[in-house]
Amino acid sequence: MRCWLRLALLGALAWAGLVGPAWAADAPQKVVRIAFIDPLSGPAADIGRNSLRSWQFMAEQLAGPGNPAGVRFVVAGFDNKGSPKESLDALKAAIDQGFRYVVQGNGSGVAAAISDAVTRHNTRHPEQAVLYINYAAMDPALTNDLCSFWHFRVDADTTMKTRALALFMASQSALKSVYLLNQNYAHGQQFSRYFREALTQERPDIQIVGDELHTAFVGQDFGPYVRRIAESGAQAVVTGNWGADLRGLVKAMQKQGVTLPLYAYYPMLKGVPELLASGDGRLPVYQVANNHTNQAGDIAPLATAFRRRYGEDLVVYAAFDGTAMLLQAMSHAKTTDAAQVAARLSGMVFPGFSGPVQMRADDHQLQQGLYVSRWQKVDERYPRAAEETGYTFAPVRYMSASEIRGPTSCQMQRP
C-alpha cells in the first residue's frame, strides 16, 4: 500500500519537475513534528479523534520511508476542548516543545485565534517560524480581512460551499421554499448569511420560510424545531450543523416522520450514516463537500485501509491534501524550515486526492471543486458504503473551482 502511494506521489512530483537527486529518497529521514490542536474530549471529541487519526494515517501512508521529501511526519494530538483559550495554551506548549507545524479545523473562532498567535510569534521569532494548516474552519474572513501569510486553508470556505449548494438547489425547478436551521456561533451564522446571499443571486424566487439559530452542543431536543419546520410548509431543510447537533436533528426528523430533503455539509461525519440507515434511508439527504463516499484515485485504497484499521470511515480527505502539499513543498525547497516551506506553498499546484489543486497565492485558500452527493443505496456504480450501512453518498453534481470561487480582499503581509 505505502509503496504504491509513494511511487504515485513520486511520479506526480517528478512530472512537475520537483524531485531531483540532491534531495534523494535514500537520504536519512528527517522527522517533522506536527501539532494537531482540536477537541479530543467533550461533545465534539468523536469528530476530533477521527480527524486526528486521519492526519496520523496520511502521515504514515504518504510520508513513509522512501517518500520524495525524505522526511517522516509525526502528528501529535493536543486537546483544546473546543476553546480558543485552551487552543492558545496548546499552541504555546507545542511551540515550546519544538513543533513548527500546526493543524486545526474545528471552529473558526479557534482558527482566528491560532492564526493571529502564529503570525505574532513569527514576527517576534522569525528564526522559529511556525506554519498553520486549517483543514476545516470555514470563516471567509480567515482568507480575507484576517488573512495571514502563515495560514493555509485546505478546505473550501463557507462562501464556496454555499455557492455550490445554491447552484445545485437552483436547478431544482419545483423547489419554492426552504427552512434554515443552524448552530448559534460564527459557523452557523455565516452559513445562514452566505446561503441567503447565494440563493438570492441564483434563485430569488425561492422563499426562506424560516431561519433559526440554536445553542450548539447542549444535547437539546430538536423536536420543537422539526415541528416548526413541518408547520412552515418548507419543501427542504438546509443546515450547517455537525456532530451531535446534526445527529439530533436527523433523529427528530425520523421520529416525527418528516421526510423533507435535508441539505447539509456534514452528513458523512461519524455516526450520521448509521443513523440515516436505521431509518431505512427514507430521509432524502444531500451533502456538499470536497469529496464523496466513492472517491476514485489514490484515496480509494486509503479509505478502505482506514476503515479496516479503525472501524470508522475516512471523512477528513483534507488530511491527504495537507500532507501531500507539505511533502511537495519540502521536496522542492529541499528543507523542512517552515518559513521556506510557506513561501513555496504560496501559489503552488500539487496533486490532491481528486486531482491537481492550487493554493492561491493571494490569500492561501485552496482552489478545488466541490461535489453535491445524494444518500442512496449502494449499486454497481457506487459500491462503497458509508459506515458499512449498505448506503452511500453518490455524486450527483460536480462544480469546478472556477464555478464557485470568488474574489478576496486579503492584503497579505509577507515576510
Question: How does this model look, in words?
Answer:
Helix 5 runs parallel beside helix 6. By secondary structure, the protein is α/β, with parallel strands linked by helices. The protein has 13 helices and 15 strands. About 50% of the residues are buried. The longest helix has 18 residues, at about 45-60.
- What percentage of amino acids are in beta strands? 15-25%
Number of strands: 15
Oligomer: single chain
The first-to-last residue Cα distance is 40 Å
Q: What is the makeup of the main sheet?
A: 7 strands, mixed
Shape: globular
Helical content (DSSP H or I, runs of 4+)? 25-40%
The whole-angstrom Rg is 21 Å
Q: Tell me the structural class.
A: alpha/beta
Chart the SSEs and their pairings.
Elements: H1 2-15, E1 30-38, H2 45-62, E2 71-79, H3 84-96, E3 101-104, H4 108-124, E4 131-134, E5 151-153, H5 158-170, E6 177-183, H6 186-202, E7 207-214, H7 223-232, E8 237-239, H8 244-255, E9 262-264, H9 272-278, E10 285-289, H10 299-310, H11 318-333, H12 338-345, E11 349-352, E12 355-359, E13 366-367, E14 370-377, E15 391-399, H13 401-404
Parallel strand pairs: 1-2, 1-3, 3-4, 4-5, 6-7, 6-8, 8-9, 9-10
Antiparallel strand pairs: 10-14, 11-12, 12-13, 14-15
Helix pairs in contact: 2-11, 3-4, 5-6, 11-12
